[in-house]
Amino acid sequence: MSELAKRFAAHGVGSIFLYTHEAHPGEHYPHLTSMAQKHAHARDLRDVLGVTRPILLDALDGACHRAYGSMPNMTWIFNRAGVPLYKSDWTDAHSVANALDYFVDVLERRRERERLVPFRVERLDYRASDRDAFFAGLARSGPKAVREFRESGF
Amino acid sequence: MTAPDLTTVYNYDAFIPEKVAPWINFDASPPLGRTAPDFPLWHLDGDLTSLAETWSAHRLLVVEFGSFT
C-alpha cells in the first residue's frame, strides 16, 4: 500500500494509515488504555512495518473506526468533498490500485468536460492470504495473541 | 454505556469472538455516494486534525484502517 501511495501521489491522491486499536492484543502489545500508549504502538507500527504513509490515530474509543464498520483492515477512498467512492471490508493493494486507476481516469475525463454521472456497482474482489506473514504478526504481539487466534474459530 | 466503558470494551483485552464480533458492522457503514461522517484524528506528534481536513487536501484520499497486531 505504501508503494501504491507513491505511485498515485503525482495524481493528487493522498494516502493515510488510520491506526485503530490492537486487533490481537498480546504480551508485547496489549490492549490500549491510554492515548500515550496508542501513540507508542503507532510509532512502533511505523518503524517495524516500515509504513511510509502518514499515520493518523483514531480516538481511544475508536469513534471513527466504529462508525465506518470496525473491520480490522478495511480501505476507503474519498473524494475531496468527503464522499466515499470505494469501500472494501479488507485491504488488497491490487483492488485499491484498480479502483484508483479508474477514479483518476474519471477525474481526467471530467477535466476534459466529459459529462459523467455516478452509478453503483458491486464486485467481489480477491486478496492474497499469507498465513505465514499473518502468524508472524501475531507472534510479534506475543504467545497470547497466537493462542487466542487459534482458539477463536475465525 | 458510559464513555469509559465504551473505551474499555472497544479496546478488548483478548481476541475471543464474544469481544470481537460485536464491533463488526461493515454492512451498516456509511454508503457510497453520500458525504461521510467526519471525526477528529491525531498525528503521531500529537497534533489534532480530522478526517475531513485530510480528505479535503487531496483530489482523492485512500484511508487504510488497521492495527499493529
Overview of this structure, please?
The complex is a heterodimer of chains A (154) and B (69). By secondary structure, chain A is an alpha+beta fold. Chain A contains six helices and four strands; from the N terminus they run H-E-H-E-H-E-E-H-H-H. The two termini of chain A are 25 Å apart. The relative contact order of chain A is 0.17. Chain B is built from three helices and three strands; from the N terminus they run ααββαβ. Chain B has helices at residues 3-10, 17-20, 51-55, and strands at residues 40-43, 48-50, 60-66. Chain B is extended and about 40 Å long. The model of chain B has no long low-confidence stretch (mean pLDDT 93). Strand 2 of chain A pairs antiparallel with strand 1 (40-43) of chain B, so a sheet runs across the interface.
What does this entry show, briefly?
Chain A is α+β, with helices and mostly antiparallel strands and 154 residues long. Chain A is built from six helices and four strands, in the order H-E-H-E-H-E-E-H-H-H.
Largest sheet of chain B: 2 strands, antiparallel
N-to-C span of chain B: 27 Å
Mind summarizing the main beta sheet of chain A? 2 strands, parallel
Radius of gyration of chain B: 15 Å
The number of helical runs of chain B is 3
Structural class of chain B: alpha+beta
User: What is the molecular shape of chain B?
Assistant: extended
Name a few traits of the molecule:
heterodimer; A: 154 residues; alpha+beta; two-stranded antiparallel sheet; 6 helices; 44% helix; elongated; B: 69 residues; extended
